[in-house]
Structures are given as structure tokens and as C-alpha cells.
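Bug #77: duplicate submission created two jobs. Keeping one. Sequence:
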Amino acid sequence: MTKKLLVAFLLVFCVSIQTAKTNQHVLKQLATNLHGGLELHTIGGVTSYGGLVGTGYQFYFYKDKAYVKPEFDLKFAQYRYEHDYHVNAGSIAIPVTVGYNLLQTKPLGITLFAGIRYEQFLYTANNNYPYDTNNSQFGLTPGLSFRFFNKVSINASYYYGLTSLYKDGSGKISSFNFSFNF
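Kept job's structure:
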């Protein structure tokens, strides 16, 4: 079931990019939205870290103010849990957000966004918890983005996991996410 969802999300992402006006425009958007970042995960009060790189495409549906943005992120992390349990993981995450540009001036842009994120684990290793990990994660993400001189963006968001990391139902992930676009 989770592989079917991943294929469906990837299909939507690819079809969305193909329906853009021109290939040059698509490449420019993907380059503009190229980002890298850090996640501070919390599971049961224990904090751990992860990193990500990815890109996305913005489809404006209300002037140049409101948009839908499917993204594609490659993630790597070590998730720590109570009693010194941990697991290393690599995944593909597909966030889909709706955003609104609150301010758009040449020196500063401010955008508010929110959406969903589906994440499919590509691998898990060194799991010392008594139960296996689930193959996927799903959650909600609100955030804020600051763009400076139409060149660099600093993005901050919060992820609230709706599914559990482990198959016994424990280990819901929440995280603060920080990323940079150039």
C-alpha cells in the first residue's frame, strides 16, 4: 500500500512539472527551489537530528500570491527514542504545501505555508528498538519563509507526525525544520 502511495505522489509530481508552460521555466523553478536543511526531531522527549536536500515547483493559482508547491526531498537521519533506542534511516519525502506571499518587495519577501508530507523509508539500519520501523510516515507541516533580495530564502517549519515510527504504535515524530534556498 505504501509503495502505491509513493508511486502516486511521484506521478502527480512528474505530471505537474510536465504541465508547466515551458521546460526552461520548469528548470528555473527547480533550480530556484533547490534547498538543503536540518531537522531537529523529537520522539518521546528525546531530540535527534537529520538532514535533507530537495527541490520543488510552485503553481500559482491566485495572481502571484497563492500557490501549491509539490516538493521532493532526500532525507537522512538518526532517530533517537527513550532508553537510548535509535535507528538510522534514509528516505524520500514528498511535501505538498499551499502558500501565500504575505510580502513581496525586492529586499524582502515573506511567505506563509502549510500542507502535508508523505515520507517513504528507503532503508533503516542499526535499529535497537524491540520492534521494526514502519515503512512510511505521514504528517502535517506549517511554516514561514523569508526571501532576501530575491536570492536567498530561509525557511522554518514544524512537522507533526500523524503516524508512528515503530510498528508497535510508539514513536510519533515531531520536528522543527530549517532550510535554505539559493
